[in-house]
Amino acid sequence: MSSPPHATPFLAAAAQSGATVLPRDWDRVVADLAGAQHGVVARRQLLDLGMSHAAIDHRIRRGRLHVLFPGVYAVGHTRLAPAGRTMAAVLAGGPGAAASHRSAAALWGLLDGEQQRVSVAVLRTGTPRAGVRWHRVRQWDERDRATVAGIPVTSPARTALDLAPRSSDRTLDRLLRRMEDLRLFDLRELERVMRRRAPGVGRLRQAVAAMTIGPAAALRTKAELERRFLELLVGEALALPATNVLVATPWATHEVDAFWAAQRLVIELDGWETHRDREAFRRDHRRTADLTAAGFREVRLTWEQVVDQPAGTAERLRQLVPPAAANSTATRGAVGGQDDAVGRSAPRRARSSPR
Fold first, then answer.
1. Backbone angles phi, psi at 125, to 5 degrees
2. In this structure, are residues 58 and 34 in contact, taking their beta carbons and an 8 Å threshold?
């Protein structure tokens, strides 16, 4: 977590202009760095930026830096948000450290509630610290690491593997479903980490299998999700969309799940299989970017939102979709297109046309 020279906006501007960084300017440097790290900094980072030990110690004595862990400081005050406490613990773990286990799951949005202790994966045995749980790793596979809100963190797949040994089957299932909802479910990455000889692999493999094969998965197919979605619209007396049609943008033509031409509204339905790999994830992001830039509104709904939470989803749909009586020819109008946006109905699911 060392910072290279000129890593803060102030230092970068000074280097570009050739200005000399004066002693009084270091408070600005510290503030810039803390602003990018949820209010905390590490001594080694400040030294890398060019501050002296004496300058750092002076700010500690004056109450500008507050010691959280040896070599890790809160800037200005110690009223840190959970992200600040997590970042401080990661900095205390030294180079290569990353938030892990429940702390990683919280950063990814996979778990709710504040964590009593921060879990950090470290490359060396950590000295016991109040409020921190160290997890020793021998070496990192860089695919197991990511960054969330500027905080080094284990990847979603690695996080699921780490949590598996101490999680019930129900908790693991809920975690995987949440990964699916947040478009973090990557089957290839999960298969990669499950090839290891590690605690919890068997339990995680069973949970993933329950999501991806067998009767439970069959009930969660895209076709079934589309049927449930249309039933929800009919039950709420909302206009039916054109389904599985091609929508043209200036950059590419994309197949969409549901389209209301008059409202320029697209709704995509995310079954578990929708984001099983990174290419599908990237393809969906390209489609979203194209549709948004072309003036369409895209909304994504998951199985849980349509099937398990129909009341809340129906309330949101009523704000987006016109009543059936106001647009009884929605499908015919959509296929005809608005501003030539819709080319033709797509006979089957197909990839977006190449860019």
1. -65, 125
2. no
Mean pLDDT, residues 129-153 taken together: 93
Which residues lie below 8 Å from residue 215, measured CB to CB, with a gap of 6+? none
Average pLDDT over residues 330-347: 44
Sheet bearing 132-136, strands edge to edge: 132-136, 118-122, 98-99, 151-154, 145-148
d(CA 333, CA 257): 16
How far apart (Å, rounded) are the C-alpha atoms in residues 72 and 1? 12
Rounded CA separation 39/189 (Å): 33
Residue 353: Cβ within 10 Å count: 12
Is residue 42 packed enough to be buried (19+ CB in 10 Å), middle (13-18) or exposed (0-12)?
buried
Answer whether 196's CB lies under 8 Å from 284's CB.
no
Burial degree of 334 (CB within 10 A; 0-12, 13-18, 19+): buried
DSSP state of 238: B
Residue with the larger pLDDT of the pair 284 and 201: 201
Pick the CATH number of 222-345 from 3.40.50.12780, 3.40.960.10, 3.40.47.10, 3.40.50.1370: 3.40.960.10
Question: Which residues have a Cβ under 8 Å from the Cβ of 307 and sit 6 or more positions away?
Answer: 225, 228
The SS3 call for residue 246 is strand
**d(Cα 30, Cα 41) in Å, to the nearest integer?**
8
pLDDT in tens, 159-185: 999 999 988 888 898 899 888 878 888
Domain segments of the chain as ranges: 9-75, 82-214, 222-345
Give, in order, the Cα–Cα distances in Å from 143 to each of 147, 149, 155, 189. Answer: 11, 18, 7, 9
Indicate the pairing of strand 253-260 with strand 40-42. Answer: unpaired
Average pLDDT of every residue of the chain: 82
Residues 16-75 have pLDDT tens digits of: 555 555 556 788 889 999 999 999 999 999 999 888 999 999 999 999 999 999 999 999
